[in-house]
Fold each of these.
Amino acid sequence: MLTCNPVGILSSGTKHSHMSNKQLVIDYDDYNSASEMSPEDQELVKEALEARHSSYSPYSHFQVGAALRLEDGTIVRGANQENNAYPSGLCAERTALFAAGVSHPGVPCDTIAVVAANNGVLLDKPATPCGSCRQVMAEYQRKSGKPLKVILVGQKRIHKFWKVDDLLPFIFDSI
Ligand SMILES: [Zn+2]
């Protein structure tokens, strides 16, 4: 028999009787180097590597480059842009996504590649986007109506995710 507690949450007579444990699987490809990737992905990685030179990072000296391929083949670059008033700056991923949203409205996003360097030295591990960038990627994926693939580049490893959901489980998209 179901009973109602003071805050209105239904519970059955047997504690945890409807509880089940679940696991999420994160699906991604792992590469030793870009040479193992498709020619299109190699090109995007190269674009991201070049984009990082447009980073404006006089405070962190952490240069991030992003390259976003749209469905029509257009590549839009992004790089982190810092500001003396720290929160006013923006990450590389979002500069690319927002630039694409403005200059190529209605063209779906296909793949975004991200690289990062510390004081000019590329990171060994793949560069991973912050939470805010993952949320924006999720929105552009929804807007595109197709999975947005994400390539995270390090000197020693490269990860390729087939959809933003694998970087941001339980995406907020309720409104
Ligand atoms: Zn970010």
Amino acid sequence: MNNSDENDFLKLDFDRLWKGRENVTAVESGIIKSLLGNRHFGRILEVGAGNGRLTNNLIKYCDNYYALDKISNFLEKINIKSGIFKVACDLEFTPFRDGVFDVILMVRVLNFIENPAISIKELHRILKPGGILILSFYHTGSIADLFDIIINQRTEKNIWARRSRDKKRVKRSNFREFFFKKSYIHRILSDENLFINKAASSGLEDYLFLKKLPPAIFIKLSYFLGRSLIAPHTFFSVLNKESISDIDDDGNLFRCIKCKQSIEINQSEFNYETKCPSCGHKIIFNNGVLLP
Ligand SMILES: C[S@@+](CC[C@H](N)C(=O)[O-])C[C@H]1O[C@@H](n2cnc3c(N)ncnc32)[C@H](O)[C@@H]1O
Ligand SMILES: [Zn+2]
């Protein structure tokens, strides 16, 4: 994400963008629940968590929930509760040691990042063997996509045109690429030796009269939609089949982003400053957000 993209994000009023779309969050939460298989996990990392639209749904499935986002102003909006931890950094360079997360989720982020392949590599590094990676993204080629192009006059430069009131607000975007093919995500995952276990699609609940239908219908249909090209937004769930046995999970998750040495960080700090004992790199807590 370059600086102009970051400005694009800061311009967005997430609260307004999501107003009246609780049905979309309900459908996405239902799909995530089903992809996680009703299990309880140790650590979940949400990458690109924004202002925590999904936080309350995700903390139910784990002991510890980690929200990561490049923009710390967004993370500050997530309420501090026990078991919630916030990290502001670029997802290409995270301060985590190898194989520490049971689940990593990245919802509505892939389309906005500079280098999806490098990001997937980093997420694979910090995912436990046997862990689950869930990615969602908008793709081309769906019936809904065609509807957006023709009826909503969406173009690559006007990605927010899905709702006419947004069209006025953000006219142009600097995002390098927005829509890509499902096959592109297949390819960058298989380059990392990661293979899709389940696919479920959503997004129809955001259109016309479909908004009025109960979310449960779309959750039920999501696996069928995942195998077709009807809905515009897809979740891929990937199981990390590797069996690396030399990961020592001694409970310490962190490493210095500069020298990569393991470091201990007190996760309950609010405003605090410390240094990496190996290289002296400064690590800060600002309003409960770790700036590694
Ligand atoms: C469209 S928002 C989605 C927010 C949230 N996942 C949701 O579904 O409501 C994309 C988020 O990804 C974050 N983001 C984009 N590029 C990033 C990067 N390189 N590293 C970390 N976060 C990034 C943005 O700051 C933003 O909060
Ligand atoms: Zn260091």
